[in-house]
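Priority: medium. Attachment 1 of 2:
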């Protein structure tokens, strides 16, 4: 087959597109040969997660090497954070919206069966990741939101409970009191900063036979407008998984992630031959390019951070953040650990 130069190809593609044809990029244009395969593979089993999944990656890893389904394994991993009242970004104890109501988002994908499930702005249910999986397992839909999602969860046997812990309620009241010096709320605490010590949790798995799964669960942005939905429940944004290629997920500013369909795009770049870390970095560049001016600092860099995690079908993994200093959790045959994330900008 004659080698087509990139320029020739693009010119020809433009002509074909104008004529109504949408050609597939020839493999010759990819950086490395495409790893896409539906044949059974021998992979290095591995779990990759946001750093707050450091306990969960071990649980999930032990389960996949024990032969458990990869999605069940990563959901068991994230359940630890969802049920931990001290993690204020997920499940029980998660930060509420501006009215003091905890609204949770979660989504998951199961590579081997090509299925997905999601819930958004669900209230009073501690483990939205499991409700997302129930949507996937028991309905013909992919996504349920708000009151409908809660009704569904209760029908499936999930228990209703108050998710607002005493500590989180106090943080919310302090935030509210400090919002406006002229409102009717008296400010008792002079110097209280509400710290975000942990984030949303995303976790991805690849088994020894190359089966993949991904899940993301969160209480979303603290003090959000009621009904605000982040990236976590959006398939392709908060997480994405294609059993031929790999899985990816994200934490950080959901609004930036949604606009770039980041998790989907990471998997697409892996499909085109990029390693997980390179794919994450390439999507971060896209995020910067898609950032509106009001969110850029004087150097043209985003005022927010965003973290990506990815695993390829053969067990390679990677993570990247906009700013240096990020870490992500991994568990493979070397055991659970935190690894330095690649980054676009030094802090
Ligand atoms: C969201 N991505 O709702 C989530 C928030 C998050 O660390 O990840 N915080 O936008």
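Attachment 2 of 2:
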């Amino acid at each position: 087959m004659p080698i087509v130069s990139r320029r020739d190809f693009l010119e020809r593609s433009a002509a074909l597109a104008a004529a109504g044809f949408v050609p597939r990029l020839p493999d010759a244009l990819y950086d490395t040969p495409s790893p896409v395969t539906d044949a059974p593979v021998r992979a290095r089993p591995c779990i990759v997660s946001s750093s707050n999944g450091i306990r969960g990656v071990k649980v999930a890893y032990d389960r996949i090497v024990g032969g458990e389904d990869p999605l069940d394994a990563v959901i068991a991993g994230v359940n630890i954070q969802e049920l931990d009242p001290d993690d204020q970004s997920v499940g029980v104890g998660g930060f509420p919206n501006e009215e003091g109501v905890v609204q949770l988002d979660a989504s998951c994908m199961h590579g081997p069966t090509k299925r997905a499930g999601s819930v958004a702005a669900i209230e009073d249910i501690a483990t939205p990741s499991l409700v997302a999986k129930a949507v996937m397992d028991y309905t013909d839909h992919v996504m349920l939101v708000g009151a409908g999602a809660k009704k569904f969860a209760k029908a499936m046997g999930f228990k209703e409970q108050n998710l607002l812990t005493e500590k989180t309620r106090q943080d919310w009241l302090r935030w509210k009191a400090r919002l406006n010096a002229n409102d009717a709320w008296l400010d008792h605490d002079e110097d209280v900063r509400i710290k975000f010590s942990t984030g949303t949790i995303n976790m991805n798995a690849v088994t020894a036979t190359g089966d993949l799964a991904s899940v993301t669960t969160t209480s979303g942005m603290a003090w959000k407008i009621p009904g605000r939905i982040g990236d976590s429940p959006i398939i392709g944004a908060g997480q994405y998984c294609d059993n031929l290629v790999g899985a990816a997920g994200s934490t950080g500013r959901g609004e930036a992630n949604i606009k770039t369909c980041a998790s989907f795009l990471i998997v697409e770049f892996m499909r085109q031959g990029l390693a997980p870390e390179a794919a994450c970095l390439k999507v971060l560049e896209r995020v910067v390019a898609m950032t509106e001016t009001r969110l850029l600092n004087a150097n043209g860099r985003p005022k927010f951070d965003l973290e990506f995690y990815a695993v390829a079908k053969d067990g390679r993994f990677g993570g990247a953040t906009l700013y240096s200093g990020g870490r992500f959790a991994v568990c493979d045959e070397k055991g659970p650990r935190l690894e330095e994330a690649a980054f676009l900008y030094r802090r």
